[in-house]
Amino acid sequence: MEDRLLGVLRSNRGEYVSGEELCKSSGVSRAAIWKQIEKLREEGYRILAQPHLGYRLVSIPDRLIPEELQWQLPAKIVGRKIYSYAATDSTMDVAHQLVDAGEAEGSVVFAEAQRRGRGRLGRTWVSAAGRGISMSVIFRPAMELSQAPLFTLMAAAAIVQAIRDSVGIEPQIKWPNDILIRDKKVAGILTEMKAELNQVHAVVIGIGLNVNTPRHLLPRLATSLSLEQGRPCDRLQVARALMIALDEFYARVKRGDARSIFKAWRSHSMTLGRRVRVACQDRHVDGEAVDLSPQGALVIRTDEGRMEQVTAGEVLIVR
């Protein structure tokens, strides 16, 4: 009943809806309507009540909750089921537990705060509680292990599209998994998978995005969408845009359209065409980043004149 009540108020947001209309749409008494209104107010919804006019939804809580994230979400796969936590150790850990339990692809895990959020190469991803977006998405693609790096490229292109669509800012991608605005990191991607022999069983993509994080809570070379936009951002709008973009790009993966994903990635790359130094375990590769391989490796024309493919490493943009 609460979902039906919220649906009517959302559809008429900013306008009063009579108690009689809410009773008819929800199939309950006026007393039950009042009880649900009070419950919604306790959850952070601002709802005005006016005699002879009814109820008006003024604002929704700034929380990444399933009821709001899924409201009229057009995605076909990503976001079909959403798990939301006030705090958890890591959304990646929760997602992997769901994978082991047989969770369907497209399920998304959100957390307002992570106690042990993690990034690439064993690093910690630190995000201010209630200020950013920490999410993990489950995919179950029918593909071989060699194709799995496509998912990091897919996620990067989707994040760029989501930021552009939700706040009008054009970010850039730094290979392999960073999203930057004006050379400052705004988002990171962590891709993990479960595979057996050469067959991928599941891919879990973790995304950390700084949305309304203030300067003093960010690392020196990081930024947030609100800082770049000059005003607070609607986190729900950004989170929904992320799911929509991931859903769109995953549809390309499923129909074998890797070409368009590479094209989207290249068009927003800040790495290609630049001189780079890549730290690869016990050595460095110096040269010009010229392209991506069909498997998503960074192709570098080294100072010695040979072409070398780097599948993992830390990239420093020299110029």
Describe this structure in words.
By secondary structure, the protein is an alpha+beta fold. The protein has 3 domains: 58 residues, Arc Repressor Mutant, subunit A; 202 residues, Bira Bifunctional Protein, Domain 2 (BirA Bifunctional Protein, domain 2, 2-Layer Sandwich); 43 residues, SH3 type barrels. It has 9 helices and 14 strands. The strands form 3 sheets. It has a 7-stranded mixed β-sheet with strand order 3-4-5-9-8-7-6, sandwiched between helices. Strands 13-12-11-10-14 form a 5-stranded antiparallel β-sheet, with no helix packed on it. Helix 6 packs antiparallel against helix 8. The protein is elongated, with a radius of gyration of 22 Å. The chain starts with a helix and ends with a strand. 37% of the residues are buried.
Give a quick summary of the entry.
With 319 residues, this protein is an alpha+beta fold. 31% of the residues lie in helices and 27% in strands.
